Amino acid sequence: MQLNTLLFNIENGIAIITINRPDKMNALNADVIQDLSAAMDEVYNNNEIRSAIITGSGAKAFVAGADISEFLSLDSAGGAALAKTGQDQVFDKIENCPKPVVAAVNGFALGGGCELAMCCHFRLASENAKFGQPEVNLGLIPGYGGTQRLTALVGKGKAMELCMTASMPNAQEALAMGLVNHVTTAETLLERTKEILNVIQTKSPMALAKVIDCINHAGTTAGYTNEIKHFGECFGTPEMKEGVTAFLEKRKAVFVTPTV
Ligand code: COA
């Protein structure tokens, strides 16, 4: 896998994907979108990988948005294609990944950066993080799913206010509105994220994939029937047999043979 704009490391089954354009605040240009798509394909297909972290390089930004320098040459069809390609190739792929994907937000998460954090399954933020959907400042609106995922995370009224005012809540404000789950120091952000994923990686990967799919369907008419289908599918699987047998035998379940 050839990646020009990302760093990609695997540690203890966790793929750490670092967007690496610190001089441009890790802005999402066409190359980053292409690389993120390839990196997510690797997360899906590499059996050594059991979860992933998305973060930004440098001390200032997670991602400060889509790359604004690519905008002026686009017409209406080009703008729609930019949004559709990004949503199909990256944002939806992350949200629907059957393995847990967590954002470690280490600074500005604006526009497409906030949207990238929001398509991850959950988020941690460092104390210096700032969030926002400032597209209205540019005569634009969010295009990578921001109006939909922000509304789901913080509610309609807050989403309206954030997208209308272009205000930038800090990490504590983001925590209070449910946009992030934990706030850490800048120094401990990655370690804390890895600690949480290390716990998650002891659980049944089959069940984790089903939790992700069910929660992604929450609020849709298919949500409850989808849960019934997945719940039923768990029965009789080797992982369900191991989990239930381990409980009855008063031992810890082992779902995955360690690869190292
Ligand atoms: N697209 C392209 N380039 C960007 C960018 C973006 N979204 N965000 C930052 N950059 C570039 C700047 O143009 C600058 O490049 P330069 O050094 O070649 O001039 C570099 O990153 C550093 O940014 P700068 O603005 O000088 O840093 P700052 O600390 O003063 O401000 C921000 C940081 C994030 C507040 C500011 O860069 C900003 O408002 N960025 C745009 C945010 C936005 O509107 N995102 C939504 C896009 S749809």
What does this structure look like?
The protein has 260 residues and is of the alpha/beta class. It folds into 2 domains: 6-200, Alpha-Beta Complex (2-enoyl-CoA Hydratase, Chain A, domain 1), CATH 3.90.226.10; 205-248. It has helices at 30-45, 76-95, 112-119, 146-154, 156-165, 171-176, 189-200, 205-216, 223-234, 238-248; strands at residues 6-11, 14-19, 51-56, 61-63, 101-105, 108-110, 122-126, 130-132, 182-184. The strands form 2 sheets. It has a 6-stranded mixed β-sheet with strand order 1-2-3-5-7-9, sandwiched between helices. Strand 1 and strand 2 (14-19) form a beta hairpin. Helix 4 (146-154) crosses helix 5 (156-165) and helix 8 packs antiparallel against helix 9. The mean pLDDT is 97. Coenzyme A is lined by residues 24-25, 27, 64-69, 108, 110-112, 134-135, 138, 140.
Topology (SSEs and partners):
Blueprint: E1 6-11, E2 14-19, H1 30-45, E3 51-56, E4 61-63, H2 76-95, E5 101-105, E6 108-110, H3 112-119, E7 122-126, E8 130-132, H4 146-154, H5 156-165, H6 171-176, E9 182-184, H7 189-200, H8 205-216, H9 223-234, H10 238-248
Parallel strand pairs: 2-3, 3-5, 4-6, 5-7, 6-8, 7-9
Antiparallel strand pairs: 1-2
Helix pairs in contact: 1-2, 3-4, 4-5, 8-9
What's the N-to-C terminus distance? 22 Å
Strand content: 15-25%
Total domains: 2
Anisotropy-based shape: globular
State the helix count.
10
Low-confidence stretches: none
Secondary structure class reads: alpha/beta
Q: Give the tally of β-strands.
A: 9
Rg computed from alpha carbons, rounded to a whole number of angstroms:
19 Å
Per CATH, the superfamily of the largest domain is 2-enoyl-CoA Hydratase, Chain A, domain 1
* CATH architectural arrangement of the largest domain: Alpha-Beta Complex
